[in-house]
Amino acid sequence: MSPGYRQRIGGRTFWVFQQRQTGQIAFNRNWDDYVSGFGNATEFWAGLENIHNVTATSQRNLRVEALTFDGGFYAFEFLDFTVGDSSTNYRMNYSSFMRVNSTINCDFLSHHRGQQFSTFDRDNEAAPYSCSTNYGSGGFWWSSCLRINPNGVYSTTLKPGASYMASRCIGSYKALRAMQMMLQV
Ligand SMILES: [Ca+2]
């Protein structure tokens, strides 16, 4: 598994806990993999236990960056992001979307706020079917079901579809070329 890494952006330091840019690592993983983490230096999920631990001592700013196949760059930030421990199924919360630090005014995470984590083998969301199974088999804080799919299927070309690594906020669910999720530390 990968422990993620730290990077500087505009004078701030972020711990990158999710990164995808080639598709060489499959993200259709089970609960245990999402808890402990998986991947290599370029493609990884650092694990819910690690993400929980980083937000357990202090609320963090979440930053999500995305690149599109036509050269677009997007960034989104969220204030006071936390992930609970295993007894909550790693429930996710945040206080507000930070428009000032985001490239566009679109909060894809509000739909997911307060949700437990779910994977294809652990359904903790309210849809009468598995959101994970229906949308690419990745793990996420699925609601019923999504506005963003960071751990969805990686496509090497621009294709439409919510099963891909895609968001409603970016071209209305078109496969993205790269994505990072990180916490300010
Ligand atoms: Ca369900």
Automatic annotation (TrEMBL):
Fetch the InterPro entries from UniProt.
Fibrinogen-like_C, Fibrinogen_a/b/g_C_1, Fibrinogen_a/b/g_C_dom, Fibrinogen_C-term_domain
What are the Fibrinogen C-terminal domain coordinates in residue numbering? 1-185
GO cellular component terms listed in the entry, alphabetical order: extracellular space
Annotated membrane-spanning segments are: none
UniProt-listed PANTHER family: FIBRINOGEN/TENASCIN/ANGIOPOEITIN, PROTEIN SCABROUS
Protein name as catalogued: Fibrinogen C-terminal domain-containing protein
Q: Which organism is it from?
A: Macrostomum lignano
